[in-house]
Amino acid sequence: MRKLTMEELQRVSVTEYKSQNNENLVIVLDNIRSMHNIGSAFRTADSFGVGHIYLCGISSQPPHREIEKTALGATESVSWTYSTETSACIAQLKTTGYQIIAIEQATESIALQDFAFDKNQKYALVFGNEVFGVADQVLEMCDKAIEIPQVGTKHSLNISVCVGIVVWEYVAKSTNSRMQKTSIL
To answer: Which pTM does this prediction carry?
Structure first.
């Protein structure tokens, strides 16, 4: 076994990335206070071809060196928009056919492993503030809630970890063939 070279990884250019990303999946960051979490969301979005990130409320915006520490340039490849109000962003996404999914521990949440992503449906995944979660007003606007089951004492995960888990589950459950590993032999 050996590590793959950069040539073998066959990374796409920023232009190629923008032409192939998945507009069926977008991320909404609801009042995220940590710029490192925002940067990590960008990096994860780039890795899995997420179509867009919506930064809302107190969420910081690129360019910022604290975001770039974890984004590592993904703010250039992943398109983003800022909205002062998460609820206004959600309302706009609904008018364009997105199903709004809160990633939250809620009374009617569905365990992530039990949620069936439909490859023909557009999804907006809403991740909430590190302390307060998805705002109550925003949660009321969501169509569904997904919860990542946990068995530990903390009952919460860092936002950057949540984004990675949920977006990977979307990719794993969809028939997105470009994510399948190609042989280099």
So the answer is: 0.92
